[in-house]
Each structure stands twice: as structure tokens, then as C-alpha cells.
């Protein structure tokens, strides 16, 4: 029977499927960070259980680490306890840890792929919803809660019900200046922030195939922002070229057999999806969110929507509440909206390609008066690469702050936080109320749009820069 | 996990769609390394005007005397979207909620709730609206959720059937330890690992 990519990976990971129970699925790689793991490690200890496969478990510190200093003294007392607890747990259970002093430390979803931990055809989980990122490689990757983290630690498996399948096809080619972020925001705008709930989404079509691995990671990263269990892209030559030679990638004969297996990882031509969505790439303009969820998004040349145009009362009420929170009026042109903060970073957009794209906008220009802009590379390796290319200098010369790797202002668990009333052009993934700081307003954009906004002091149509 | 069979309790509501886990438990409270004590911070930024949590917002339902002690929460669609933080169901359960009723839930939140004995119940939009209307109209209105029969009983006595995966229902009814059950499949896990290709080992 014809199968989708998801079904192929799913079927190859079933350990047991007892009658009346959710199937037991094997987990190939488990990524761990400081915020969602301490209670899982405690649970193991209380129950006297072992960590089944420490060699398949990889930990980093990212969520509440400082981007100003690699010293533990820079952390709040509770954050410090959390970071130290992770270090103790990794020591006790034999888990490889990239701590804040390690050159490979970084955001868990940046670190995994660049070290070759992320491989096509694997199941990857992490106590973080943006684990969907790794689906860019044709892995089945999804976020889990801490009880499930403990379950994986104890059994190297998870109980899972099979998801429905959705094919999201982006046909044709995007215009100059349109990035993976614009593509995924346009998709979320089309299907809504819960349009993918219950589904594993496969992204395909010429515009997806044309993306680099960095771009595919940006798209899959935000699969969760449409509610999807996971997002996937079929592996191809771009994927294989990216993975080859990385630290934990297979080597020698194992590499050859892996590549042979990966070449089979694509949806069969006659595979049936439960839902099918099509977008024309040429129609996608630069996107930015205006409201308080990622589905509240418009193209840069469109106005802020009017709640009176919305027939559904619940949706109308959501729009009204969002407009009040973000202090915008229906009909406002987004290019007239001023910002005072810019954040370039996060597991969505902190990779080398993102920083190059932002630097291209910043080069030879200056951050506008009254705007504070920070650039937070996704990992130590991204930072090193960016510095080798001189990107740090471009940013610093333009008035951006160049920081140390971490999740930073995406969720503002550390001290990179907006104040009430701040308005931020952010390359992150969530514009929820208070996400970047209580009372702050977040507008999600691509790295190029964020850097251009930093220079202009308001949103601009990036296509005019090309 | 504590078993869930049936529950009758005071209901309250937050009449919003897309309530994300950042609202349920904001990030400034995620730095604890234990599972307990999150209830005081539940919906902090909506519940309190100040960062310290000293000044309650009287307009917020959870602060209203008529809803004190509520254990059933009604909300609109896509409840629990966003971050996978299990601190969200921990906070809801610690505050005293046993059941959340909404037209739909985000996947990760749904699973996390079941793993903590907090029952997420999906009803239709019209049914949720009827429950909200009845609960608003009558102070002290109670809602019953019977997992055995898969029925919600409104204050008026109206009954609404709901569905839930049989595996989740079974675990909740019996308060089973999911890890303990999965460990009984150790032999199958060992056999599965033995046949893995080298590149996945």
C-alpha cells in the first residue's frame, strides 16, 4: 500500500502495538534542556529507574542562560539552580552535556542538526514544542511534556497515537527577498494557528525543495504554530550534503547504508493524505504578525484587519482582544507601525543563513535612534562561523548588540526581556501576550525584515531593498 | 497517577479561544525544579495587575468569589496551544482543577493533562456555550463529568457525550503508571533495538 513519508517513519518505529493500547514507538534521539528535564530526572530517581540509553540522550543549556556572560553568576538564583541541576543529572546518568562553557553549546534545535545528531528517518523528541524543527531532515520530531521525557528516559520509547496526514504544497518559486519565514507565516495565515491540530504535516513543492536546510528548519520549526504534531520535509541531496561529515553522522559503510535508506524516504506518488493545502509561492509577500498569535498575520502591504469583517463571533472577539493588547487600530498600514526593539535569534531564525540575511540589511547602515537591537546566534558554532565571516562586525558597526548563544528574548526566561509597551520586530516564533515580557508587543518577521525595521525604526517592505 | 472516574464540581470559565500555555503559566515561573506549587502562579498575568501577585484583577473569573473553589474550567477552542511546558497542567491541577472542557485542545497539552490525571473534555462549540451560559446564570452551578459513561452533565441536567481515546480512558480510570506499563515491554524493546541498522544504533 502506498505510504506517506510520515507513515514510513512511523511504521519503522513501532516496537509494540497491543490491542486497546496506544502503540509503543521507538525514540532514536532524545534532546534535553534545563527547564523541562529536572522533574523527569527526579521521577526516575524516586522510582529507582535507570536512564535506558544515555548514549542516545543529548543535553544542552539554552532556555535561561545569559547572552551577556558565560558565567553562572550572571544567572538569577533559580535559573542557576536549574542549570546546575541539569549538570548534576547529566553527570549522574551519564548524559553528554553541552554546558555554557562548551563551544558547541546552543539552542537545542540549532545544536542537534549542526552536530549531526538529527538524521533523516529517525524519531527525535525533546521537552520543547519546537522540536518540530528537526522534521526538516525527514525525521519525525515533536515536542513532549516532562512526564513523556521521563517515559523516554526510562524506556527509550513513547506511547503515541498515529496522527492524521496533511500535505502542504508550495508551488513555484518565491520572489526575491521572500524567505522561509515568510513562507511559513503565509501558511499559518492560510490554515490558522490550529489548522494543523491532529496532523503531521509534510511540506513539499518547488519552493520548499529550493530551500536550504536552514530554511527548511525555519518552516518545520513553526509547524507547531499551526498546531501540527510535527512538520516534515522529504530528505534529498540538500539534506544529505548537510548531514555528511558532521560529528554524530554515520561514517564509512554505515553512511552508505544510511544514504540508501534515506533515498527511500519520500511519500509514494499515490499516497493518500487526509488533507491537502496548496499555496502559490509567487503570491507570498513579506509577512508579519499584527496580533497575539501566529495566525494573526498579514502581508507587509496589507492593513491591520477589521474585526467587523469577521463573521465568527469567537474569532471576532479574538481580533478585538488582540488589537487592544497590541495597541493597533484596524486599517493601519503595517509600514506605518514603529518599533523600538529588535530581536534577531531563536530556534526559528538564528542560524548562519539568517544572520547573513540580517547582516545584508544592516551593512553600512545604522540602527534608528530610539531602537535597541540584539542579535543572538543560535549556537557557539553559528557564532564562530558568523565571526569568521565578519558578520559580528557588521552588526556592531550598525549599532546592534552581538550576544552569546541561547533562547534569549524568544521566551524571555533570562534577562533579555521587553518592558511593558515595547514593540518588537522579532525573528522568533510566538507573539503571544507577554511572551517577550509582560505588556510587550511582538511582531514576528524574517531576519531581513527585522534588520530592516531596526534601521528604519518601523516596518518596511523588504522587496524594495532588492 | 491518581485515578479519575467521575467528578462533580463548581465550574468557572475563561471565555477566550487559543488560550496558550504562556498565559496558563508564564515563563517567569518555569525555573523551579519540582512539580509542585505552580497553582499560585496560574494565569498570573491575567490574574494579577502586578508582577508580585499582590493585586488581583477583579474582572478575571478566577478571582471572583462566586467561582472560588472551582474545579471545572470551561474555555473556547484550541486550549493549551503553544509551548509544551507540562507546568501548565501542573499549575491547573495544583490550583484545584480536575477537568477542562473546551471545543478543542492543542495536542501536546492534551497529552500532558492526561498524564497528570487532569481530564480534557472536548464538546461542541454549542455545548460549551450552553455550559457557559448555564454556569453564568446560576451561582454555584456544578458540572459533572463521568469518564466511565463518557458524559458531561450540565447544571440543567442536560447530558453531553464525549469521546476520548480508549487507551487514555483506561489509564485515567485505573490511575495507571504509564512508564510501569511500558517497562513490561522491555523484551520487545530489546528485540527492536537488536534489529536496528548501524546508522540508527
From TrEMBL, chain A:
InterPro entries: 3-IsopropMal_deHydase_lsu, Acnase/IPM_dHydase_lsu_aba_1/3, Acoase/IPM_deHydtase_lsu_aba, Aconitase_4Fe-4S_BS, Aconitase_4Fe-4S_dom, IPM_dehydratase_rel_enz, IPMI_cat
Aconitase/3-isopropylmalate dehydratase large subunit alpha/beta/alpha domain span: 7-457
Pfam families membership: Aconitase
Cofactors: [4Fe-4S] cluster
Residues that span the membrane, as ranges: none
Record's keyword annotation contains Iron: yes
Domain of life: Bacteria
Binding site for [4Fe-4S] cluster: 347, 407, 410
Pathway involvement of the protein, from the record: Amino-acid biosynthesis; L-leucine biosynthesis; L-leucine from 3-methyl-2-oxobutanoate: step 2/4
UniProt keyword list: 4Fe-4S, Amino-acid biosynthesis, Branched-chain amino acid biosynthesis, Iron, Iron-sulfur, Leucine biosynthesis, Lyase, Metal-binding
Keyword Iron: yes
Reactions listed under catalytic activity: (2R,3S)-3-isopropylmalate = (2S)-2-isopropylmalate
Enzyme Commission code: 4.2.1.33
Cofactor, free-text remark: Binds 1 [4Fe-4S] cluster per subunit.
Family assignment from sequence similarity: Belongs to the aconitase/IPM isomerase family. LeuC type 1 subfamily.
Complex and partners: Heterodimer of LeuC and LeuD.
Known role: Catalyzes the isomerization between 2-isopropylmalate and 3-isopropylmalate, via the formation of 2-isopropylmaleate.
Protein name as annotated: 3-isopropylmalate dehydratase large subunit
Source organism of the structure: Shewanella algidipiscicola
Automatic annotation (TrEMBL), chain B:
Keyword Transmembrane helix: no
Residue span, Aconitase A/isopropylmalate dehydratase small subunit swivel domain: 1-124
CDD domains, alphabetized: IPMI_Swivel
Reactions catalysed according to its record: (2R,3S)-3-isopropylmalate = (2S)-2-isopropylmalate
Assembly behavior: Heterodimer of LeuC and LeuD.
Enzyme Commission number(s): 4.2.1.33
Pathway assignment: Amino-acid biosynthesis; L-leucine biosynthesis; L-leucine from 3-methyl-2-oxobutanoate: step 2/4
Entry-linked NCBIfam families: leuD, PRK01641.1
Enzyme class, broadest EC rank: lyase
Source organism per UniProt: Shewanella algidipiscicola
Name of the protein: 3-isopropylmalate dehydratase small subunit
Keyword annotations of the record: Amino-acid biosynthesis, Branched-chain amino acid biosynthesis, Leucine biosynthesis, Lyase
Recorded superkingdom: Bacteria
Family note: Belongs to the LeuD family. LeuD type 1 subfamily.
Function: Catalyzes the isomerization between 2-isopropylmalate and 3-isopropylmalate, via the formation of 2-isopropylmaleate.
InterPro entries: 3-IsopropMal_deHydase_ssu (IPR004431), Aconitase/3IPM_dehydase_swvl (IPR015928), AconitaseA/IPMdHydase_ssu_swvl (IPR000573), IPMI_Swivel (IPR033940), LeuD (IPR050075)
